[in-house]
Amino acid sequence: MRTSDFDYNLPAELIAQEPAADRDGCRLLVMDRETGDLEDRIFRDIVDYLHPNDLLVVNETRVLPARLLGSKRGTGGAAEVFLLREVFDREPKTNKSALWEVLVRPGKRLKPGSGAVVDVRDADGNVALSAEIVDWVDGAGKGERIARLSTELPSLDEALHRVGHTPLPPYIKNYAGDEELYQTVYSKRESSAAAPTAGLHFTPELIERIKEKGARWETVELEVGLDTFRIVDEDDPADHEMHTEFYTVPEQTIRAIAETRAAKGRVIAVGTTSMRSLESCWDAQAQAPRARDREATSLFILPGYRFNVVDAIVTNFHVPRSTLMMLVSAFSTRDNVMRAYEHAIEQRYRLLSFGDAMFVR
Fold first, then answer.
1. Residue 299 and residue 334: Cα distance in Å, rounded?
2. pTM value > 0.85
3. What's the CATH code, domain 3-63+178-360?
């Protein structure tokens, strides 16, 4: 198995640059997991493929206003700080100050130990938030730093929402629409650097129709990191090191899984982040999933992996050579998935985060 096995020609004109006019009006490619058979549908038609006693599990995390555009104190040079995750174990957090793991730009001028500080100003030109670069992230191989965020506003949360921007994937250029459309309608706690995009297609009305069909709806949390945007650089995907992410699977979801199994229903992961959460919570010794509370996972699902919890998945189309292409291939087969992508491209599906969806069942 080589990374190149998961490559494909991605036409630039098919990369969706804005969301569908109606969340559930995008296209849906339905694929039989075993045979690879394909059907072209509309997303709201997913109700037709659900059965009473099925369980849909969604990632309810919300995207942070994680992109901070400012200037380097002292020189005025343009600088960017991208928030990855909060650091809880190094110093006490206050309402106006906290440590975060971040990416910065330009990296050469924002090094720990140099006294580098990035000031971020509001619309009136006042400094609303400052980020002092204080350390490197232990063991980080991609330049992550520790920054101390501080503000003179009443709270750091208020400052972030005043000057922060919702980060979009780098392949989405110049989107100036409603940033709320890059959030799921059921999102809650802000903790992710990217959206769990398979969930973007659901509307409150569609969720209600799903429940009326007799299917259940439960949640997990996985704090989505930037590995979502990265391709695998190594020739052998087994050499790729997954970024650690934190996830939570509530006891209520665990009970729902057990009841779904007892009723002969399917556990359907909405998105690869839900998939990774559900598979990460599997207890091999107990041979059952168990509840988790913000535990770390670096689970990397490659072809050959045995799925223990999930029976079907709703997912978007993914970047070539990505860990997500490998995960979906593991759930079906590499040949089935590549044929599905060829079909989607031939039929001019809209691809990637703002694009159309697949249901692999």
1. 19
2. yes
3. 3.40.1780.10
